[in-house]
Amino acid sequence: MNTAIQAYHTALDADSRSICDALYTIICQELSDAEHKIWHAHPVWFIDGNPIVGYDKLKNCVRLLFWSGQSFEEAGLQPEGKFKAAEARYTDASQIKTEDLQRWLQKSKTIQWDYKNIVKRKGKLERLG
User: The domain that contains 36 carries what CATH number?
Assistant: First the structure.
């Protein structure tokens, strides 16, 4: 785990740290070639500079966010925001369904919207691949 993400985890309460540790492990296994770093104060994974998945501590849960998740058409993910993002929220590590998360992460490799260039395109998203 890189030091910035380690520091993010260390600052969390025990329950949130347990959730984030589990998410980190599974995400790194499935996206082993993806760059990951702290971006906008939260751990985020990128493929070719495009944000794919990340998580952050909210007031009462940990949110797992897939930037292109609405296009996965998965019942376990809820739409988030005005673009193509979708989320899952956890209050306990036992709520993480490993098989679902692995499937979502596999989809995140091939189903992507071009968030990297959203500013250049003046807020218009284009599908990659």
Answer: 3.90.1150.200
Phi first, then psi: what are they for 71, rounded to 5°?
Answer: -80, -5
Query: What are the tens digits of pLDDT across the range 26-59?
Result: 999 999 999 999 999 999 999 999 999 999 999 9
CB 42 within 8 A of CB 120: no
- The structural domain count of the chain equals 1
Read off the pLDDT of residues 71-99 as tens digits, 9 standing for 90 and up.
999 999 999 988 899 999 999 999 999 99
Angle at 113 between CA 29 and CA 85, to 5 degrees: 75
Full domain range(s) for residue 87: 3-128
DSSP character at residue 51: E
